[in-house]
Amino acid sequence: MIRILRLIPAAVAVAAVAACNTTDADVERALDPLNVIDETNLADIMLSAASPNEAVDYFRRAAQEDPTRIDLQRGLATSLVRAGRAAEALTIWQGVIDHDGAMDQDRVDYADALIRTGDWDGAQAQLDATPPTFETYERYRLEAMIADSEEDWDRADSFYETAAGLTTRPANVYNNWGYSHLTRGDYPGAEELFVRAISYDPELFTAKNNLVLARAAQGNYTLPLINMNQVERAQLLHTAALSAIRRGDIDEGRGLLNEAIDTHPQHFEAAVEALRALNA
Questions:
Q1: pTM of the model
Q2: Separation CA 115–CA 124 (nearest Å)
Q3: CATH of range 135-224; options 1.25.40.10, 3.40.50.1980, 3.40.50.300, 3.30.420.40
Q4: pLDDT for 30
Q5: Rounded to whole angstroms, how far apart are CA atoms 132 and 87?
Q6: Which of 101, 158, 239, 242 is the right S-S partner for 70, CB 3.0 to 4.6 Å?
Q7: Domain spans of the chain, in order of start
Q8: Same CATH topology for 46-108 and 135-224?
Q9: pLDDT tens-digit profile of 98-113?
Q10: Average pLDDT, the chain
Q11: Which fold has domain 46-108?
């Protein structure tokens, strides 16, 4: 027992000497995994919470400091698309999919950026290069949009239906699907899909506006029974008014414009200008 007790101070002394010999480089190496974790968390925050342009600045700076990290390149490309700068993102996405660490999702995101720039063929090529076993909401949503661009309605319907079944928040899918039917001239079908979109997301104003367009195309200018605030009601009345005027229902359009102006809690410049032009 005495020998063991004598060895303890010696061990402490050895540890102390080892600690004294630790260099700054050793400390950096020891802390490096912690830095990676912190940077990953920060990257997630920048993608989800920061403004798109702030995220672009962060990822561009980080990627320049460490150009070998694919996650930073991926974050930069994603942020550029979010900021409405899809054309700038294309080169970055190409570099990402050429990287050894590229994932199937990267090709889907690259296809999304290509669609935003009008390169439908390029987008289809990226989706075709993605394994068929990679089945996600984003992939089928893009497949449906490409089918729409080719007016392949049966294929589009199939892809929209699949996409809607792969997400717990299908409001945007139903809205896009409804707009597809709107462009085909299937106004009742479009109306049904827009109602379904709003049922999943009562705040989705685009679907509300599209619903008014679908009803107006059938000569029905009354607003649907959906939740809307006063500003939204005025804007939807304005949409119905313009639709009525385009269909030649001038009196209905004039009345709806007046109602929109009276409904809006502030000065409704667009409706005022439309009414002035109509009266002129």
A1: 0.79
A2: 9
A3: 1.25.40.10
A4: 42
A5: 27
A6: 101
A7: 46-108, 135-224, 228-280
A8: yes
A9: 999 999 999 999 999 9
A10: 87
A11: 1.25.40
Is the model's pLDDT at 21 over the cut of 50?
Answer: no
How far apart CA 196 and CA 114 sit, in angstroms, is 29
Q: Are 40 and 70 in contact (CB under 8 A)?
A: no
Determine how many CB atoms are found less than 10 A away from the CB of residue 177.
28
At residue 219 the predicted structure's pLDDT band, cuts being 50, 70 and 90, is: very high
Query: What is the C-alpha to C-alpha distance for residues 38 and 69, in angstroms, rounded to an integer?
Result: 15
CB atoms within 10 A of CB 39: 15
Separation CA 154–CA 137 (nearest Å): 18
* Residue found by looking up tokens 């390169």 in the block: 119
What is the predicted pLDDT for the residue at 50?
A: 66
Q: What is the spatial distance between Cα 14 and Cα 8, in angstroms, rounded to a whole number? A: 10
Query: What average pLDDT does this structure show over 205-218?
Result: 97
For residues 200-239, one letter each, b for 16 or more C-beta atoms within 10 angstroms of the residue's C-beta and e for the rest, the string is: bbeebbbbbbbbbbbbbbeeebebbebebeeebbbbbbbb
- Identity of the residue numbered 79: S
